[in-house]
Design brief:
- The protein is α+β, with helices and mostly antiparallel strands.
- 39% of the residues lie in helices and 17% in strands.
- The protein contains 10 helices and 10 strands.
- Strands 1, 2, 3, 4 and 5 form a 5-stranded antiparallel β-sheet that branches. A 5-stranded mixed β-sheet has the order 6-8-7-9-10.
- A hairpin with a 5-residue loop joins strand 4 and strand 5.
- The longest helix has 17 residues.
- It is globular.
- The N and C termini lie far apart (98 Å).
Length: 309
């Protein structure tokens, strides 16, 4: 009898082990499997570091979740977004767009141009937001393109806003120059653009250890108040403005300079004039009927020295 009871008990336990539990927890998101998939998709070799972030529920598509992936090699990186269904059997790469709104509304909503150095006519139908670095050679190239062509070709149709995005890891005086440029801007747009042209023209001669003396030798010869500039620069009174631009650039997923946004459309890298002109002309044509982007400036902005009473 004892042997029969033991055999019956063993059979019950075996059957229980083989029967799936209805309340068993569902497996989590398989990051390793997804990493292998995106590596193959993008031809990313082993030396590329891939970070698969935790999935977040999608508000746009029911049953899907957003998965962000960051691939990096040293200081360089790129980011991608994917929509993955909860069963982890289908994936959509890209963005979910709203046909009733501007396709670049998300970027337009992030970019805050208020108080930034500007060129062109306020209220223009096309806004170009430029993120740049004074020590970057490609930024110098783009600056030459913009200064020679943009406002001359589109004097009333385009408004340009300048934003700082110094790549401090590879450009040791870029942040210093950004702070100095914003100090010059406190004395007006003209003062800023004089500094802008000087900094890029002197890019090869400027050094971290001599930047201040070079700046102070240049400023009085170009109509800037040297006492105001010295106080602002030495106290880093505009550093917070630079930090805000950096934070904005990171939110926009910037990973290189220069980067332009034409009514929210991202153009990464140095863009030749004919290509930029073509994009602006197409945007002008689109805005004739869409009227869903452009400069919304309604009033003048009075600039004062931060911290001044």
């Amino acid at each position: 009898m004892q042997r029969i009871l033991v055999a019956l008990l063993s059979a019950v336990l075996c059957l229980s082990a083989q029967t799936p539990k209805k309340n068993a927890a569902k497996p989590g998101f398989d990051k390793q499997k997804f990493e292998q998939y995106v590596r193959h998709l993008n031809l990313w070799p082993a030396e590329i570091t891939v970070e698969v972030r935790d999935p977040k529920p999608s508000e746009e598509l029911a049953g899907f979740q957003w998965v962000e992936v960051k691939a990096s090699l040293g200081e360089r990186f790129t980011e991608q977004r994917f929509l993955v269904n909860k069963e982890q059997t289908r994936v959509i790469q890209g963005e979910v767009l709203d046909l009733t709104a501007n396709p670049f509304q998300k970027q337009i909503g992030v970019i805050n141009n208020a108080g930034s150095p500007a060129l062109g006519t306020a209220g223009a139908p096309v806004v170009v937001a430029l993120f740049t670095d004074f020590q970057c050679p490609y930024c110098k190239q783009e600056a030459d393109v913009i200064r020679k062509n943009l406002i001359q070709t589109f004097p009333k149709e385009v408004r340009l806003y300048f934003h700082d995005f110094p790549l401090e890891q590879i450009h040791p005086w870029a942040r210093t120059a950004a702070i100095a440029g914003r100090c010059a801007h406190l004395q007006g747009d003209e003062g800023f653009w004089k500094f802008h042209d000087w900094a890029f023209a002197q890019q090869q001669q400027l050094k971290p250890e001599t930047f201040r003396s070079q700046l102070m030798a240049w400023a009085p010869q170009n109509g800037l108040d040297i006492l105001q500039l010295t106080r602002c620069f030495d106290n880093k009174e505009t550093e917070e403005l630079v930090n805000k631009d950096l934070a904005m650039g990171r939110e926009l997923k910037l990973n290189s300079t220069p980067t332009l946004f034409v009514n929210g459309r991202k153009l990464a890298g140095s863009v030749d004039w004919e290509s930029l002109k073509r994009v602006i002309e197409m945007e002008l044509k689109y805005q004739e009927t869409a009227k869903n982007a452009g400069d919304t400036a309604c009033c003048s902005v009075s600039l004062t020295t931060p911290g001044a009473k």
